[in-house]
Each structure stands twice: as structure tokens, then as C-alpha cells.
Amino acid sequence: MNQWYLYHLLMGIIGLSVGFVGFSEILSQGISLGTSLMAVGALAILSQTGYALFIRESSELTERQSIEIVAIGAILCSAGALLHILV
Fold it and tell me: Where are the transmembrane segments (predicted)?
């Protein structure tokens, strides 16, 4: 798989994980500053990922885009969202 697509796929997973936690907290406990910022941040990540995949702005990763760091972040965000569901 192309690293550029993998990077944006992992960023989408991070956005979904953070958005799930943010929106579930808003629905269960109401709106607060932290949950609102989580929801807005998740929407921003998902919007940027969708835009990049739709426009295909660049097929090469820049030196600041690290697959390894994003993969670790996606795993941690997914684990946090899973723990949020279970606990």
C-alpha cells in the first residue's frame, strides 16, 4: 500500500476515535469545553483527511509526516476509544 494513503487512513482512524469519544461524552454528560474541543478537533482531522484523499494534493509524504508515529497514535487512540466503551 502506498505510504501516502496509509498515512491518511491512519489519520482518519485517529479522527474517528477522538470523535467517537467526544461525541459520546457530549451525548451522555452534556456539552463542556473539553468535549467540544475533542469533537471539533475530530471533525477537523476528518475534513483534512477527506480533502487530501479527494484532491490528492501530493503523493509523497513530507519529512514531517511519519508513518510510524501516526500508526502508534492510531493504535493509542483506538485503544482509548475502546476503553471508553468498555468502562
Answer: 7-27, 33-55, 67-86
